[in-house]
Amino acid sequence: MRIPKLLPLLAVFAMLAGVLAACAPSATPTAAPVEPTAVSEATQAPVAEQPTAVPPAEPVKLTFWFNWEGTNADVMKDLVNRFNEQNPDIVVEPVFQPYADIMTLYQTAIVGGTTPDVAALDLILIPQLVETGAIAPLDDFVAADAEIKVDDFYPLLANYDIMGGKRYALPVSTNNMQVIWNKDLFTKAGLDPEKAPTTWDEMQSMAEQCQDPANGVVGFEYYTQPTGEGITWQFQVWLWAAGGEFLNGDNTAAAFNTPEGLTALTYVSDMLQGKGSQPGPWGLFGDQKACMQLDGSWLFGYRKDAPFQWGIAPVPAPEGGATASNVGGEHIFMFDATPNKDAAWKFIKYLTSTEVQLEWDKLTGFLPVRQTVAENADYLTWINETEPRMLPFVEGMASAHARPATPKYFAVSDAFSREIQKALLGEATPADALVAAEAAVNEALK
Q: What is the pTM assigned to this prediction?
């Protein structure tokens, strides 16, 4: 319920009437003293009544759901506490929700009428919530607020939140994938440890030279199992680098069964069939059993103190293609059921502001969602002084892509990965796998 505005109090003022006592002069110096004239009750000054004290309004209470863990959760709680201190009329309660089975949690809350006021969620899940009608559009708030500056967000992130011509969320964190290589294994293989591959041909050549089958070392670690988003997420990087697209413009049909798609799938499947890689469980790089892999900017949380030297470089490009990457991250929104939309917007605006985003990125290692943060001198100085290896991720936002914004994305990803995995494992030709994947994806989109 919205807190009503207080009516102004009416001040009560009393006129104080002064009573003058007149003294008559004595007839003679020996006259008896005159009794002082008594002031009657009727002429006494009235005592002004004190206005009734109005109790202070209760602060608006907002519940905020998120699924960041560890240090990231601690940083977010600190930022929320600061917002509460700066806005005594609003109290935001941060609530951690585990990512596992997160959509069941949200769907249960929607059906039961127990949704939070505000939430931050993986961007690829938001279209499913939009489809339910449970998320409130932000267009009116954005249009009325000159400070928000939506065009400062990276377009691929800001545009992701527009569905059916309406904006439902704003970016609050992001990440992408680039190539990471083990410098120690490069040195052991006779490769320049400071030189990463820049083309697909270089990557395959370096992977073949660096692999050591006798010791279980692969040149390039590629995700092949289990099926699901892991396979789809990585393949899209190579597809976009080759100039292809995953779905058509309105996300109603597959668009990857093209010469570009065949080029990308042939490249990775060839590597997996002995030309620098091989199928296997994920995690070889951390065990120093892989010379290279694609990994995301989140790796600084667990790779920073690795017992080997490593570097990061942009994803190599094929001949005639360009470097590419795939973005992830969380976007923030409000539920339509909240009765406190003005307060919810104030909190969303706070978390996505340049000032807060600059601090959030520096403390967590997330990449900037705002271009002014990515170009901020203080931020760039921080990167150069504390973790210069982050720079390829920051610069990679300019060439990154976002996955299709459709509520059917996970059904599509699952169908795609099941067919593409067959080519990765050598059980089907790339051409046949693409044909089968196209049919499966189109079926999932019906």
A: 0.84
